[in-house]
Amino acid sequence: MTGRLPLRCFAMAGLLSLACALMSAAQTSQSFDWPGKPVTLVVPFPPGGGNDAVARQIAGLAGQALGQPLVIDNRPGAGGTIGSASVAKASPDGHTLLLCSTSSLVMATVLYPGLPYRVDDLVPVVHIANTPMIWVADPGVPASTLKEFIAAAKQAPGKYSYASGGKNTMPHLVGQEFRIRNGLDMLHVPYQGSTPAYADLTTGRVNLMMDSIVSALPFVESGRVKGLAVSMAQRMPQLPDVPTLAEQDLEDLNFVGWVGICAPRGTPPEVTAKIARSVQQALAESALRAAFAKQIVEPVGAGPAAFAQTIERDAQVWRRIVAASPADRD
Fold first, then answer.
1. Which of 90, 105, 116, 323 could be bridged to 96 by S-S, CB 3.0 to 4.6 A?
2. In the prediction, which pLDDT does 114 show?
3. Which residues form the signal peptide (predicted)?
4. In the chain, pLDDT over 70 holds for what percent of residues?
């Protein structure tokens, strides 16, 4: 025995190497060619809402960048949790995506431990945009800023109330955080959405509410309610007299809603990266940015890693808020 391998062994080794190389090339080609069919973007809210509008505005341009249509599929119900659960259980091949948001992904999983999905069941893909908020008050309150409102409420315990679009919504939970932080005696009044709340806010039956700027803007511009603070880095050109929270040393109340795209856990990173690039390309279009500006939506475009940090940060914040005030959620 000389210790040398027979020639057929070298031949077999060569064939194995060739097979491995071909498999690697096939996998690379498969990921490069994705998607091979239309991609479904599940929107877990009814058509016509703010999140639905963002999804439809981004879908056309992002689909062009992907080379396949990005098809909107509205699956509303239970505060966005029905549609979210369906995507969490979908095949992680990148052809079923979720329009995820602060309320349906982070807040819902914190508030309702029995949901059939958790934050970790969905991987962050791209942070599309932020939806800034505004604090508004009835026109009769003796305050022009949120800081002045805090002072007035401290001087009159039990006199003032705050509204929300329903229990366990962001305005409700932020409102109770606001009350607790500042030691205020205020009653929470829930409504079936923010629209009916404005009927009472404009007449002084309730006194304070946090809402999305796009919903509140017509009421503030017409003078039917007072704008007390905006959760933006700078004052809005449309509302130059409404100060930011930072101007009032109230940065700890700077809550902002966000919307993005998530995918089922296990979706290949090269696929999520391609989706992120398609949305980033869409957000670079001036027409889309102009449309977002009209809706008071701030484009972001952060990819998977940065979006994951945003989700985790907000999850920690909402866990703390919910744990600190369980009685108000009964």
1. 90
2. 93
3. 1-26
4. 88
Tokens read off for 260: 């993005």
Round to whole Å and give the CA distance between 286 and 226. Answer: 32
Q: How far apart are CA 138 and CA 79, in angstroms?
A: 28
For 63-89, b where at least 16 C-beta lie within 10 A, e where not — what string? Answer: bebbebbbebbbbeeebbbebbbbbbe
Residues 6+ apart with CB under 8 A from 47: 74
Mean of the pLDDT values across residues 208-234? 94
| Per-residue pLDDT, 9 | 44
What whole-number distance in Å separates Cα of residue 86 and Cα of residue 75? 9
Written as six digits, the tokens of 24 are 């690697």
At 211, which helix (H) or strand (E)? strand 208-212
Phi-psi sector, 78: left (phi>0), alpha (psi -120 to 50), beta: left
For residue 130, give both structure tokens.
């932020």
CB 89 within 8 A of CB 251: no
Across-strand partners of 190?
A: 164
- DSSP-assigned beta bridge partners for residue 135: 210, 229
- Percent pLDDT > 90 in the chain is 77
* Distance, CA of 295 to CA of 200 (rounded, Å): 24
- Sketch the domain layout of the chain as residue ranges: 39-131+256-324, 133-253
- Residue 302, beta-bridge partner list: 127
Q: Select from 175, 167, 172, 168 the least CA-distant residue to 149.
A: 175
Q: Tokens representing 96?
A: 């079923």
**CB neighbour burial string for 281-304, b if at least 16 within 10 angstroms, e if fewer:** ebbeeeebeeebeebbbbbbbbbb
The whole-angstrom separation of Cα 317 and Cα 198 is: 28
- What is the pLDDT, as a whole number, of residue 309? 97
Question: H or E element: which one contains 269?
Answer: helix 269-283
For the record, the structure tokens of 82 come out as 């029905």
Overall fold of domain 39-131+256-324 = D-Maltodextrin-Binding Protein; domain 2 (3.40.190)
Pairing label, strands 161-164, 208-212: parallel
